Structure formats: structure tokens, C-alpha cells
Amino acid sequence: MKNFKRFLKYLIPYKKFQILSIVFNILYALFSSISMLSLLPMVKVLFEEEEKLREKPMYNGIKDFNLNYLENYLNYFITKLNDSKGSLITLITVVAFVLSAFLLKNLFSYLSILYMTYLNNGILKDLRQDVYDKIISLNVAFFSNERKGDLIARMTSDINTIKVSFMGVLMMIREPLTILFTLAGMFAISWKLTIFVLFFIPVSGFLISKVSKNIKSQSGDIFALEGHLLSNIEETLGGIKIIKNFTSENYFSKKFKDLTEGINTLNNSIGKKMSLSTPASEFLGILVISVLLVYGGSLVLIDKSLSGGAFMAYMGLAYQILTPAKAITKANHALQGGNAAYERVAFILDAENPLKDKTGAKVISEFTKEIKFNNISFKYKEDYVLKDFNLTLPKGKTVALVGESGSGKSTLANLITRFYDVNEGSITFDGVDIKDVTTKSLREQMGIVAQDSILFNDTIANNISLGINDANEEKIIAAAKIGNAHNFISEFPDKYQNNVGDGGSLLSGGQRQRIAIARAVIKNPPIMILDEATSALDTESEKLVQNALENMMENRTSLVIAHRLSTIQKADLIVVMKKGRIVEQGTHEELLRINGTYTNLVSLQSLEVNLNIS
Question: Does the keyword Transit peptide apply (predicted)?
């Protein structure tokens, strides 16, 4: 129930629908009782040998308005109608009244459900948006520790479970009201029988609650397994070529089967409990009705304290309690599953973002001087990737980082864009610690072209203009030309409106990379970060991409992380890294004269190129 209370904050924007639904639920509950009570005068007057009132009952104010007065007045009205119009017309009139009561009951039921549906769908929309907004606001490290499929499950199926369960709870407001009004009618007819009924209701409720005791915990286990299942599917689809190449279909099939078997076992366990709840609650209800028949029948036949017509109306009211009682039971079971689902969704909503902007963080609008790494140290987990690292990136200069894999080159790109924060030291942007500026304004000063060009399943134009609100066709084409992409784009049937496919699958690696460069160009940032942007390309594609990169870096500050040393020979400063430290730095010519680590790397790559050629 704690999770449900937290969920109530989403009701505020839709309080109009909530109020309307409550009003119609009250009217529904009221007319549910009236519809059954309306049968009482018809039974008593038309089908019983009972004294018929031909004098209008006296009414001297609200104190006289009670069930006895109402019953006497209906007796008088029906008797008078029967005497003047005959039994058939009287029967038709009474039936019309009963039908009207049932019609109003169902009309109010429809209206209450309608407005509750508007309320529930609005809440679902807002909850989804909050979860999505939180996901895209979290730092990169959060996603490194979580399965993508599990996060997708939390954002989709778990939220749908919340919708169903909490809709049931919100709708449950009518059920206690129906029971309340029905009990009022039952008390009015016979307080003895009603006290008898009230003794059995708590007993029935206790027995039913025992059935659903473990539903919440098992529901949570199912949601977790379904998240793993979705992750497994996502990994399978993403790595289908590797699975086939290594003939590991049986391994993945068994892994998937184990997950589905676990889900099936838990689903059967919950299904067994939930399947038992409805017939159990119905049987207990019928048991109460059966006992009532015996006890109530004795009041009619032996004690003579209750008329047959009143008893029939009473039994109708008593049976009417069964439906809301079963609805409350189902809502309780749904609430258990909803609580488990909400705890999984709350995991995202409650996730802390250690990189959240400070209060009063500065907004930067230009780059005027330099970026400095001041004695920084950083580790992802246990071991330091960078230790006591110092480097200056002056405005207008190109600084290249080279070194063996794992030396910390890409980590510097992650730190300068503040995907992660340094553990020690500081990174300053024009003398201001980047922890003291807004992340958005910092990243607006930078464009990134990485080794893996991430494209979205959209048009080429939309991929190039990503994040640019005022990008027109002229700007997109100009950026594509600088990125050396305009020629091949023009060959597509739909040109810039051509879809790139899932992850850019309809394009070659070189084409994807040049679109990524055009995307960085149209952003027009003062600083460019190139993270091994050509390392995965063939020689011909590399040349085209390298030309595009040189066009893009012109008159800009650039940090280049290079795998192929031939691409950074014109850099103003080449920094050679090893195990998170700088071992050499200088221009290409200066480093060759040192005849150290850089010279060795150049020799190894030259040998590799010669071997490939031969």
C-alpha cells in the first residue's frame, strides 16, 4: 500500500476526472441498493395477501422520512394505482420503475468507469514520461551495471502491470460504497439478519487473504526473470551473426529455455493461487447466502417477524454484496503484483545521478582559452586507469593521444565530456572546474565522432540534424559536404529522406562514419573529440573519412584519440600514453628524433601495412 500512496501524486493533474468518477461511483452504489429495494413494494403489494393502504401516510417533516414511511407511501401509491388502473398497469408501472433504477445504476457505472479510464491513462502517460526522462538523465555508469533488456521490461511491461493493478484499486472505491449502501438497506429490512451476515464477512475475508499471501514476492520474481528474458532476446538479436558463426544455437536455446521454465513455474504458482481465489470467495459467499436462507426462512415461517417479500428483497441485497466482495479480492491480488512492479519501476525513479548539476552551476556559452587536466586520477572500479595525469588542450590546437589499448585514451574523452567524474584532481574549462558548470552547456561546446557510429532508425537528414531544432535542408547539405557524405547520399532514391535502417544497417561502415561527422559538423561546436574515428575502416573508406575529418577540424580545437598513427602526423601535439601516464609528448618529428615509444609504434604499424600489402 506504501507504493500506492506514492503513486497518488500522479492523480493531481487529473483530479477533475477523479472527482467525477467518485461522484458517479457514489450514485452507482446508491442505485445498486435502490434497484434491489425497488422490488420490495412490488412483491409485497402485488403478490402478497397484505393490508393495502388507501390513505396517504402522514408526513410532518424530515424526522418522518424513514424506511417505514417510504414503504407505506409506496404501498399507498401502488394500491391506489392498482384500484384505478388495474393490476396489469400497476405491474407495468412498477416494472418500469425497477428498470429505471437498474438503467440509472448501469449509466452511472459506465460514467464512473469512463472517467476513471481517462484518469488511469493520463497517469500511465505521466509515469512513462517520468521514467523515460529519468533514464535519459542518468549518468553512463548506471547503464554499465544494468541489463538493457531488464530496463526495457521495467519501462514497458512493469508499467503496464502498474496500470492494470492500480486501475483495479482506483475502481475499488465503488465496491466499499456498494457494500455500505447495501448493508444500510439490509439493516433497514432486518437488523438481526444483517448482524448475522457481518459475523461471516471477516471470516471469509481472512480465508481469502490467506490464499494471496505470497503473490507479491512471486510477482517480483517473475518481473525480474522477464527482464532477464528480454535482455537475452536483445543480446540474441544483436549478436545473431556471432551465434551462427560459432554454432552456439544450442547454448542460447538452452539458456532461453531455462529462463522460460523458471517464468512458467512461477506463473503456474501464482495462477494456482489466483484461480483459487475467485471460486473460494464465491463459495464462501454462497455459504453465507445458504445460512441466511435457513436463518431468514425461520424468521419468515416460524418467528413471523419478517415478511416473505422483505426476505426476498433482503436476499437480493445479500447476493449483491458478493460481486463487490469478489472485486475487492481481485483488486487485492492485482495490488500485490502492482506493488512488486512499482518497486522495480521505483528503482529507476529513485536512482541517484552523481553527475547531477550543482545548484547555481554556471552556464558556459563559448570557449576562449584552454581545457586543462590538473593532476587527475580516475578508476572505473578497483584499479586506476589514469594516475596523476596532466595535460593542456589550448584553443585552436589539435592534440592527439596515442598508445596501447587500455592506456586511458578513451577514458580522457569520457572525462572531458563528463560522462564520468574524476576521483582526484580537476578538469577546467577556461579556468572553471567542469563540475561547477551545467553538463548541458559543457557538452554543447563539444562534438564527438567515435569509432562506433551510432545512427538511429530514421532518415539520413534526421540523423545529421540530431539535436538541432532549426536545421534546414541547406544546413544539412552543407554539413554533409564537409563530412564527405553528400555524393553517396545523393545516389539514394530518397536522398536525405532515405532511412538508414536499424543502427545504420543499410549503410556501409564508411558511410555511417561520414554521416556521424556531418552530425558533429552541423552542431558547429568549438571543440571536436575524435575517438579512433577511422580505426574500423578499410583503406579506401579511411581516406574519405580522413579528408572529412580534416575539413571538420579546420579552425577548431581538437582532441584526437588515434589508432592509426598516419592520421595524426599533422597534430600540434602528440601525447604518448602508457598505463594511464604520459611517457612522451611532442610533434611527429620531435617524437621520431627521440627514438622512443612513439617511434616503436610507428615502426610496428609500418610493418603491419607492408605485410598486408604483400
Answer: no
CA distance 575 to 568: 11
In the prediction, which pLDDT does 127 show?
Answer: 84
Tell me the pLDDT tens digit for each residue of 253-280.
787 778 778 777 777 776 666 666 666 6
CATH label, 370-445+557-614, candidates 3.40.50.360, 3.30.70.380, 3.30.40.230, 3.40.50.300 = 3.40.50.300
User: What are the pLDDT digits (tens) for 40-99?
Assistant: 655 655 555 456 666 776 666 555 555 566 666 777 777 777 778 777 787 787 778 778
Other CB atoms within 10 Å distance of the CB of residue 21:
26
d(CA 254, CA 168): 38
Task: Please list, in sequence order, all residues whose beta carbon lies within 8 angstroms of the beta carbon of residue 554, skipping any fewer than 6 positions away.
Answer: none
Give the residue ranges of the chain where pLDDT is below 50: 49, 216, 608-614
DSSP helix/strand/coil, 493: coil
Given this model, what pLDDT does residue 361 score?
A: 87
Pairing relationship of beta strands 398-403 and 370-379 according to DSSP bridges: unpaired
Cell numbers 426476505 label which residue? 311
Dist. CA 372–CA 365, nearest whole Å: 18
Check: CB of residue 43 under 8 Å from CB of residue 91: no
Angle (CA) 430-431-432 rounded to 5° is: 95
3-state secondary structure of 446: strand
Consecutive H or E run containing 384: strand 384-394
Q: What is the pTM of this model?
A: 0.71
- Give the domain ranges of the chain: 2-349, 370-445+557-614
Query: What burial letters (b/e) apply to 54-80, b meaning 16+ CB within 10 Å?
Result: eeeeeeeeeeeeeeeeebbbbbbbbbb
146 DSSP 8-state letter: S
- Mean pLDDT rounded to a whole number for the chain: 76
